[in-house]
Amino acid sequence: MQDVLTEAVRTLRAHTDALLAARVLTSGDQVGSIRRAVSLQAAADDVVRAVVQQAREEGATWQVVGAALGVSRQAAFQRYGRPTDPRTGEPMDTTPLDGVAELAASVIEDLATGRWSRVTDQFDPTMRDGLSEDALAAAWAQIVGLSGAYEGHGEPTAVRAGDVTITTTALALEAGDYTVRTTFRDDRTIAGLHILEGQS
């Protein structure tokens, strides 16, 4: 484990040196500077990941890790954990579905503009059987009736949980805040759609 941490720190140092050197040698290259800063950020995250894994191997609980990171133990696990699939004993894929933030945002935009069929057309068979276009429209009307017109939404966050990717998006209406939790299958169909009062 120490080798992984040493290599992560070495890579971080190389990215830091590259960013600092480029700022001197190629001043005015804002795009290049941004790209180098993003690669530096990714390298720093690799260092944190290695330190977290080392702490876990030495017995630190997810509660301790989360407290050190300033997040809940579940958020720490979702970011740095290595879940094992209980069905196979193999490590689980923790990479969210590609482009899922855009999918989640488009669902909210479709709800807000009354394009119910565009949402229900994305439902998987179970969702389609359980929630009709009319029922979806009625649910949205009830939310608008309680909290007023749609004002906007935040940037969706995504986490992979087993065979699905779950997005969480803050939703703002005139007189209330909500959280939209959308579950997507790998084929990009919607397996779950929940609009919860309050922001999480």
From TrEMBL:
InterPro entries (UniProt xref): DUF3887 (IPR024981)
Domain called DUF3887: residue spans: 104-193
Pfam annotation, one family: DUF3887
Protein name stated in the entry: DUF3887 domain-containing protein
Protein source organism: Auraticoccus monumenti
